[in-house]
Amino acid sequence: MLEEWLDKLNIYEKHLNILDERNSYSKTDKDATFMRLKDDHMKNGQLKPAYNIQCATNGGYIVDIEGFSNPTDVRTLVPFMDKLLKKYDTKINRVVADSGYESEENYLYLRKKKIKPFIKPLNYEVKKTRKYRNDISRKENMIYYKVEDYYICHNNKKLKFEKRIYRKNKYGFKSESKVYLCNDCLNCIYSSDCINMKNKTGLKRIYVSEGFEELRKESEKNIMTEEGITERLNRSIQSEGVFSYIKSGMQYLRFKHRGMEKVISEIKLLSVAINIRKLSSKIKADKLGFIRYKEVI
């Protein structure tokens, strides 16, 4: 029985070594991770072995493209930028990305590297909705008094500073948040709309990460400028256009090889072909040196 357990432990250890920081892998391609893809024909959220391809463009050309086993974009920005900075060093002074790349860790990384962020906040679109603006449970819809350091809720009750908490995610990043507590919620007529039903104490608490909020506001301010609008427009044309051309234009829907090294080689060969095509198109249209599209208002 002990020998059987030992064999099982060895098998589990082997699987964990292959997984590394992932939570799944394919038996036929151990570098691939099971992900939810857009081409879900059965509409049941099925998982398929895949790679997360990240593409950096500038002036309409692909400057680098890499593959990652992590299914979330937020974990790819730092390693991808490290590779880009080794190649281009001080030539990179801004990064334009969608909301999937937003995190405090990524913001701090870009600030440290003196790179201007044009990252759309996760709540950028949803906070425009009436439901969001009328949600009394959100701290964004409460009044904050900075000097006394407390919030006023919908029923004019104070949420006072309680403590600071420190959290560390599974990747080792530490974040700091301030906790605000209201002790006068038990007889509040708005408690059902303000307090989560899972909250057994019946008291309202909100968590505020001042560092993250500051970084988010800075990025949101950047994307609202004329420069930011132009940069986001170019991203949607250039970066997203690459994937659109690969999938729709070239009908290239599946990798021909297995393994991270071979997959990256494959996608980089495709990138060379796309860049040559882009150069040829610009020569024919007499648009060499034409870098950005400008929004017409």
Largest sheet: 5 strands, antiparallel
- In percent, how helical is the residue content? 25-40%
Q: Work out the radius of gyration.
A: 24 Å
**Largest sheet, order of strands side by side?**
7-8-9-10-11
How many DSSP H or I helices? 8
Number of strands: 11
The low-pLDDT segments are: none
Please give a structural write-up.
The N and C termini lie far apart (75 Å). 37% of the residues lie in helices and 20% in strands. The longest helix is centred in the last third of the chain and has 25 residues, at 260-284. It is an alpha+beta fold. The chain contains eight helices and eleven strands. Strands 7-8-9-10-11 form a five-stranded antiparallel beta sheet. Strands 1-2 form a two-stranded antiparallel sheet. The mean pLDDT is 90.
Compact description:
Helix content is 37%, strand content 20%. The protein has 297 residues and is of the alpha+beta class. The strands form four sheets. It has a five-stranded antiparallel β-sheet. It has a two-stranded antiparallel sheet with strand order 1-2.
List its traits.
297 residues, five-stranded antiparallel sheet, 20% strand, globular
Secondary structure layout plus pairing:
Blueprint: H1 2-19, E1 33-36, E2 47-50, E3 52-58, E4 61-68, H2 77-88, E5 94-97, H3 104-112, E6 116-119, H4 130-133, E7 143-145, E8 150-152, E9 158-168, E10 174-181, H5 191-194, E11 205-208, H6 210-224, H7 226-249, H8 260-284
Parallel strand pairs: 5-6
Antiparallel strand pairs: 1-2, 3-4, 7-8, 8-9, 9-10, 10-11
